[in-house]
Amino acid sequence: MKDIYLGRQPIYDSAFRVEGYELLHHPTDAENTALLDSEMTSSQVLFDTLTEVKLERLVGQSKAFLSAARELIVQGHLSQIIAPSSQLVFQITPDIVVDETLLDTLRALRQQGYRFLLNDYQDNEAHQALVDTAEYARVNMATTSAPRAHRIITELRKRGVAPIAGGIEDQEVLEACQTLGFTYFQGRHFSEPRLLKFKDISANQLTVLRLISALNQPDVDMKTVETLIAQDVSLSYKLLRYINSAYFNLAHRVESIQRAVVLLGLRNIRSWATLRSMSAMDNARDDLQTIALTRAKMCESLTEPLGLKRRDAGFTVGLLSVLDLVARASMADVLATLPLEEEINAALLRHEGALGRILACTLAYERCDWTTLKELGLDAEKVNEVYLEALAEAYRIHYELLRD
Question: Does the domain at residues 203-401 carry the CATH identifier 3.30.200.20?
Answer without folding.
Answer: no
